[in-house]
Amino acid sequence: DAGVTQSPTHLIKTRGQQVTLRCSPKSGHDTVSWYQQALGQGPQFIFQYYEEEERQRGNFPDRFSGHQFPNYSSELNVNALLLGDSALYLCASSYGTGRYKLFFGSGTQLSVL
Amino acid sequence: AQKVTQAQTEISVVEKEDVTLDCVYETRDTTYYLFWYKQPPSGELVFLIRRNSFDEQNEISGRYSWNFQKSTSSFNFTITASQVVDSAVYFCALGGANSKLTFGKGITLSVRP
Asked: Which of A46, A51, A57, B18 is surrounded by the most beta carbons within 10 Å?
């Protein structure tokens, strides 16, 4: 049983560019959440997708957007990259929005130069 | 707003010692959930334990235990007989009525042989 998979594992971009990160949830899970983890900090909630809609959003600008597909996989898009967007981006999946059995992927390390 | 404080930043112990990681939380929710996650160098957040505020339902694994005190809003985590493989960053997290988690800044635990 595959867990949460994220791609790519590492990514290097320059300021102003756009990036797309991908997440496949654990089998049987229908909810995907995205977190940003800056170096030396705890993860911060970006948003959550359920039934192909954004259900909750953290304190992140509109440059951060997402999508969930019918197969429950998800994408995180970041436009107009800033140096401060450099971080580990973690995807977590669960069954249902109110359930707390979250499983995390290994993340995508984004470096913005 | 929810907040998690992990006052300890780094802890170093010798193998087989017991170690306690401290966590203090703030929330206005009457129903909430508290977690401990482990993050090894690979980056993936590994679920360790969960405590519900309203009942005794919880999950525990072998050498792990916790001390949940509502009166002091603390949720401390203890590893008994630590092992080198326990070396990682440990995060305390708080969840409210939805599955959004608020994390602390993490504690780096080093277990020396």
From this structure: A46
